[in-house]
């Protein structure tokens, strides 16, 4: 809120008779946005609150959406929310000091899993100024034994379920897979789960760097730091059931800069590169989302490219 005299601007979310109410006051009166159906008990509910000037909206479980707006003034726009007091979650030390139009007089009984404001996670220990008789909710898999995320993984609650953030070297829904596994003969195969990646820096030794040609390199060929690849050659084997996904990408990492990439698009491998004029795209005709090992060869010589998947001619 803005003041401690039961007046001023405020923003609040509270339960009233089983309904969620999103309220805010910009100085001319409170907006009251209330959902139609009662909130089910003992069930995780996600709530998203938004405000743009006087207009606001509340979304529940990414489905039900309720809108409203605060009163309009003829003289003053009243579009800004002025807040000076602390943010209280779950209750307040003295409800009589809260804005009367918030209509809040009792604390919340239940559990709050996550609170983000503009993407910033609020419910972190380092953000707390004061806490009164707060306990950890023990009815979620992340707080029960056995701990669901293996090999040192971090359990992130996601309503009734959870996501595991794995330590480096592990993947899988419960971090149960090591990312390095022996497969495809005696060579090592690296396993990815759609969220993991490996990053290398200047591993290509041909022509001194792993960059592809640019205009600066052509103008100053004697500067070793500016020399770039005239050719690229990649050879690898993949095994996947996915129809989409990046296999590898190399470039300068800036907008509209040169790059070269391999990706699975629609179940087929594509080779893409841009040397500064326009992108070149080569498409294979051999499907790779068969969960079988298949070899890929990709070659670029200046502006010419060759892509071979399996026994493709």
TrEMBL record:
Keywords: Disulfide bond, EGF-like domain. Residues 138-176 form the EGF-like domain. One of its GO terms (cellular component) is basement membrane. PROSITE patterns: EGF_1, EGF_2, EGF_3, LAM_G_DOMAIN. GO terms for molecular function: calcium ion binding. Pfam families: EGF (PF00008), Laminin_G_1 (PF00054). PANTHER family: AGRIN, PIKACHURIN-LIKE PROTEIN. This is Agrin B19 isoform. It comes from Lithobates pipiens (Northern leopard frog).
